[in-house]
Design a protein that fits this description.
alpha+beta; 5-stranded antiparallel beta sheet; 8 strands; single chain
């Protein structure tokens, strides 16, 4: 360092010791400021290009807009410093302490931040393109909209770190430990995420196209609507993960742990699922064209104690399923008064029958109303039909049909497991039938609506979309003027008590096409 620069550094130190804190705009390029103490000083717009600030104490400093390009800041203390819009390109921040520092819109292109302390730091919209953050501690740091493309984040650590909408294209996060991190809508194409810990993380809407997630821990993570097309997830842990409407087109899910995950509406076209662990995973509303899968593991612990082998036919049956439904068609449009009464009844029924865990979808046209109830397990179709028909005059006939079918099923040579499941589910409703009936009457006492007296038709649909009509009123679909004028009230009353059971072979076919693992 030349003599004039030594004098300038001496003057800065002397002024600081005398209580001066405003050094804004100062030029100390290439100066040796090793171990200098300037905490809480105003160094905004200052220039420290290629300066040596090793182990310097700059905690709480205002370095807004400062130029620190190629500066040496290893082991420097910058906690709570303000470095907004500062330029630190190719700077050396190895083991520097930037805890709670603000680096909003700062430039750290190809910066060295190895083992840097960045807990609770704000790096919103910062540019860390190609930066090296290996083993950095980034707990609760905020990288929202930051550019980390090509950055090295190998083995970084931090709970609750935010990368919302950050650019991590081609970044290396091998063995990163970031539980409960927020990667929602982040750009992570071709990122190396092998053996990361993203348990409980939010990756909803993230672009993980062609990312390498081999051996990653994503247990309990939110990947809803994420793009994982072409991603390698072989051996990854996705248990209890939300994959609703995620794109897994051509993804490699070989021996991936998906136990109790939810992927309703996901696109698995062309994906590989051989050896995947799928215990308690619903397979409703999936897109599964050209799926590749030789076998899966359905054991509760993923220990291969229950393995299912596939051929092309059984593979299609296993993965092409829809939610089972109970549909009630009412031969009258729903009016406001009836709607209030009906929903109040269904709400009360749901309190005592938890299987009915969601309200129906309601479709009303000028003449007819359709109520559609979805259910997760097919053995609950018959009892749910008994419950949901309760508010209508047709309930007794519909329920009588279903009970008659149950008696015949009891005598039938069906798979023992399947028979037990169906009859057990039905018995739960039968033993409470009087309670359900009393509850409905209580809420219909003051209703003057004719809606509930209208003819109905009840149809069940299983997960293979095979239908079974369990009851249809004899006058369903007939207009009043189409009914014979010679029919007396007694005739109409007799007709209303008539019912026809479905062909029992059709019933058996319907049950046999339940999820074949049942």
């Amino acid at each position: 360092m030349i003599e004039s620069e030594l004098v300038k550094v001496y003057q800065v130190v002397k002024q600081y010791q005398e209580g001066e804190r405003d050094f804004s705009g100062i030029n100390l390029n290439e100066a040796n400021l090793s171990r200098i103490k300037l905490s809480n000083a105003n160094l905004s717009q200052a220039s420290f290009m290629v300066a040596n600030l090793t182990a310097a104490n700059l905690s709480g400093c205002n370095l807004t807009g400062a130029n620190l390009n190629v500066a040496r800041l290893s082991n420097a203390t910058l906690n709570k410093a303000i470095l907004d819009r500062a330029s630190l390109n190719v700077s050396n921040l190895v083991r520097a302490d930037l805890t709670e520092a603000s680096l909003i819109e700062s430039l750290l292109i190809r910066g060295e931040l190895i083992q840097c302390l960045l807990s609770q730091a704000k790096l919103i919209q910062a540019n860390l393109n190609g930066a090296d953050l290996r083993e950095a501690k980034i707990e609760q740091a905020d990288f929202t909209y930051a550019n980390l493309s090509g950055a090295n984040l190998r083995a970084v650590f931090g709970v609750g770190t935010c990368f919302r909408r950050a650019d991590l294209r081609g970044a290396n996060l091998t063995k990163a430990d970031l539980p409960k991190a927020d990667f929602s809508y982040a750009e992570m194409r071709q990122a190396n995420l092998t053996h990361v810990n993203f348990s409980g993380a939010d990756l909803s809407g993230a672009n993980l196209r062609w990312a390498d997630l081999r051996g990653a821990n994503l247990a309990g993570a939110n990947l809803s609507e994420a793009n994982l097309s072409g991603a390698n997830l072989s051996g990854a842990n996705l248990s209890n993960t939300n994959l609703v409407k995620a794109s897994l087109v051509h993804a490699d899910l070989t021996q991936t742990n998906l136990i109790q995950s939810d992927w309703v509406g996901a696109d698995l076209s062309g994906a590989t699922l051989t050896g995947a662990k799928l215990y308690n995973v619903h397979r409703f509303s999936l897109k599964a064209e050209d799926l590749k899968c030789d076998w899966i593991d359905l054991s509760p612990n993923g220990d291969h104690s229950y393995v299912i082998q596939f051929n092309s036919e059984t593979l299609k049956k296993f993965f092409y399923q829809s939610l089972p439904t109970v549909q009630i068609f009412i031969d009258a449009p729903l009016d406001f008064e009836s709607n209030v009464t009906l929903m109040r009844i269904y709400h009360q029924l749901s309190q005592v029958y938890p299987v009915m865990n969601r309200p129906p979808s309601v479709d009303v046209d000028y003449r007819r109303t359709t109520l559609t109830f979805s259910v997760e397990r097919e053995e609950h179709l018959f009892p749910l039909a008994c419950i949901t028909i309760f508010p209508f005059a047709d309930s007794s006939l519909t329920q009588k049909n279903i009970v008659t079918l149950m008696r015949r099923i009891k005598e039938e040579n069906l798979g023992n497991n399947r028979k037990v499941q169906i009859l057990t589910a039905m018995n739960e409703v039968i033993v409470k039938a009087n309670d359900f009936k009393a509850l409905v009457r209580e809420h219909q006492t003051n209703s003057q609506s004719q809606f509930f007296q209208s003819a109905t038709q009840t149809i069940l649909k299983n997960s293979s979309q095979q239908s079974l009509m369990v009851h249809s009123h004899i006058n369903f679909g007939k207009r009043l003027d189409e009914l014979s004028t010679r029919q007396t009230d007694a005739d109409l009353s007799l007709n209303s008590r008539q019912t026809t059971l479905p062909d029992f072979n059709q019933v058996i076919d319907f049950i046999e096409s339940f999820d074949y693992l049942g």
